[in-house]
């Protein structure tokens, strides 16, 4: 093997992913060097809780709690940022770039909110910011979209990119339990944080979607324009009804190219059971990407966890090892497209989104109800693909309509009008459906 | 966008993939240039049937039937070899390398049989031979394993890497038809060649498996050591029985790391229905890769066809565009591992393979049969996980045994002994089972 000097890494953060990165780099050092052609060594660690790191690392590597000294250490080639958050992490990453260091990060929130600024700074200093671990954990989805599908005009992508919510949805369906009970269980198992808001309200998925959409379509990262709806309002009744109709409910991140612009949305979604992605269960992640040449492709794996995420961090380290001596002009652009070739496609507001819909409502069980609702839907250019009515006793019924493709704005207007009809007994639950074909 | 000169490509072959490559490069020229930072232009085409190519290309590019002039043209940076076969293709590829040109090829047979020689020649001349299209069509599986999973010690991989056989197996199960009828239909639909031997006997899958195993484990390409068994002997009865037992039969390419060496095998295999790969239907491909850090990952998409395969060819062209100015020492090694760091792990003979088994046999229906068979299995260290007996009338019964993990050599010896028992009425059908976990 060639006798190049080892690449020197400074590690910021020694939590779940940081310790996983240490473990993988240590355990597989030889296997990795056989691939990379040189050794990759963590030469310095900074973390707010050094004792924990020292416990694992021993005396092999200096560990302290001063994050900025790692970023300023002239001996370090690459800084790996695994502390999370968007304030200190941003400061550290920008300083590392300013110091001419390459950066590897797993921080989706940071890139979703400040990615454009960070990538511009990196291009300016001709350094690489690599972020495979920021989306879908270990799955090489950034590499696949950015380098594997370069021949394609990408038409859409759809991803299960948050393991916590997929675990909750799987449990709700398999165990027949309501959302609140399953969330509690997920927290006990460590699949959900004590404050689960970012996961269950779709914010984490939206961070990742903003990054994926950027590299798929060649647009800036636009987290603030993603429509976000979580799963906390989801009724067990709808999970059961979806199953009966041949669908699974998944929290999807969707980025879809339309004639007038791009749809960016995160929300629970009915997906036909015969689609592979509908069968991705538990805390696993998967992303489907549709390109005009390749058709549909799917990428599946663990979207979180210590070593799966570390797998992506280390893959990025190997990539940087290979590319850092290359002419910056010929490197893979951070956001897949050349920085001066990004497009300003408009992001469509949710009212302009096109989808088919699942509408459920409680009504008084009397003749004429169906006809009146159908009339309202038709008046908003919404056509019905199927309908089920369940009598609930005491003169009450539950009706589910499935629609063909319609514009969300029209659907919202129709819902408002239907909710005003005198026989309607409940607010209307509306869920979007995607056939993903 | 930067004003680099276009990269000049010479195209050898204008069949299904060649014409697809032309179409994709032409249609998506701007999208591709936005990514690659320069245009990629086919400047010369050679094919044995120029009239067909001229019909598509018109006067835009010179087309002739002299393949060697493309390889010798000093204006051409990259040669794309899409003529197939292993004799002329080998000569052309080696000549292109000798002339200092990079090569992109979709030719799995060529690489399976002569890959080691070709990659050595390329390393020697410091040129790139890219071959994403050679395995699983458009799915970026070479890139994912070679670059996306570099952190991992890969434990095993399992792939549906031949679309023809997966189409046939899907039809046998869904339509309840025997192999011969479905093959005829596949030939009519163009999913199978007039001479389907390479596909149905597993040879095409074995070509791809030899390449995948090499980049997964860092071993030379060893097609001649792959155990190969096709699907032409598969009985409809076993497809039905597998379904009843909770399995699907798939033709898998399996590469498994064991303590004593590597298993390389292609054969029909029972896979539990709840595994994602068991639900890959029709002509689609999928590969599951298990790494020690990432766990299980799966890659799914079209494994053949004009534009899906062209998608991989063009992705390789973009990669070459990016890497051709890079220091050869820092490029991604052809076979994922540095050429001087390949391992000589032994490839295990089929008798040493470890698997669980499905054994079906016809017997005379009388007391003691089960006990006698179980006794033989036990004497060969084979333990039974479950058993089903179906009475067939006229004093005949069909028995299916599922075993726990056993060594193939022991199973073959037990089968021979059981076939000698006086109540056994048929040869024993034995199929391997993989839980893929």
Automatic annotation (TrEMBL), chains A, B:
GO biological process: methionine biosynthetic process; threonine biosynthetic process
Family named by the database record: Belongs to the homoserine dehydrogenase family.
Stored NCBIfam families: PRK06349.1
Cited PANTHER family: HOMOSERINE DEHYDROGENASE
Record-annotated ACT domain positions: 358-435
Pathway(s) of this molecule: Amino-acid biosynthesis; L-methionine biosynthesis via de novo pathway; L-homoserine from L-aspartate: step 3/3; Amino-acid biosynthesis; L-threonine biosynthesis; L-threonine from L-aspartate: step 3/5
SUPFAM superfamilies tied to this protein: ACT-like (SSF55021), Glyceraldehyde-3-phosphate dehydrogenase-like, C-terminal domain (SSF55347), NAD(P)-binding Rossmann-fold domains (SSF51735)
Gene3D superfamilies linked: 3.30.70.260, Dihydrodipicolinate Reductase, domain 2, NAD(P)-binding Rossmann-like Domain
Enzyme superclass (EC): oxidoreductase
Name this protein carries in UniProt: Homoserine dehydrogenase
Chain sites annotated for binding L-homoserine: 193
Transmembrane portions of the chain: none
Positions bound to NADPH: 108
Active site: 208
Annotated binding of NADP(+), by residue: 12-19
EC number: 1.1.1.3
Statement: the UniProt record of this protein carries the keyword Amino-acid biosynthesis: yes
InterPro entries: ACT-like_dom_sf, ACT_dom, Asp/hSer_DH_NAD-bd, HDH, HDH_cat, HDH_CS, NAD(P)-bd_dom_sf
Gene Ontology MF terms in the entry: homoserine dehydrogenase activity; NADP binding
Keywords: Amino-acid biosynthesis, Methionine biosynthesis, NADP, Oxidoreductase, Threonine biosynthesis
Organism of provenance: Pelistega indica
